[in-house]
Design brief:
Elements (H helix, E strand, L loop, with lengths): L11 E7 L5 E7 L6 E7 L3 E3 L5 E3 L2 H11 L7 H17 L4 E3 H15 L1 H11 L5 H14 L38
Parallel strand pairs: 4-6
Antiparallel strand pairs: 1-2, 2-3, 4-5
Helix pairs in contact: 1-2, 2-3, 3-4
The structure holds zinc ion.
Zinc ion binds next to loops.
Length: about 180
Amino acid sequence: MHCPFCRNGDSRVVDSRSTEDGTAIRRRRQCPQCGRRFSTLETASLTVVKRSGATEPFSRAKVIAGVRKACQGRPVSEDDLARLAQHVEEQIRATGCAEIDAHEVGLTILGPLRELDEVAYLRFASVYQAFDSLEDFTAAIALLQMERTPLSGVRVAGPGRPADRPPPPAGGRGGSVPGGTASGP
Ligand SMILES: [Zn+2]
């Protein structure tokens, strides 16, 4: 590939190593003409299959664009959005799939968005899980409240029973929603 500094049409690889999580290879390159070094990052291409069947490369920018609307008026910064999109991409890549449905991308967004801002989460979920009644919202809010964990304090392994998880809201799209309501690690 050409040098980004002098645009010489050639460069050579001087070092090549896997990123920590093993999902990419970072190469250190040097331009034989100007001698300057730069890095490239090689990742498996990740394809999003849209409802129409058309495909497009996964794009963090599109994730951000989709979430930004739900975050209007909320205390969510551009950095927060960038981190969320990175998180979503990492989560998708960790599945090892080279292709993912656009709808699954939306569902993957739910987890990190919920941690970021619950109101934005509800707005986004109402679109992606196709809430069509007040009951859907009520159920989602009840689930949020039930699963809300105290910010501080050690979790006591007491006699409490494990949280009963209510069934997903009716009218949702299809049965299983992998990762839809799961909280992060
Ligand atoms: Zn150069």
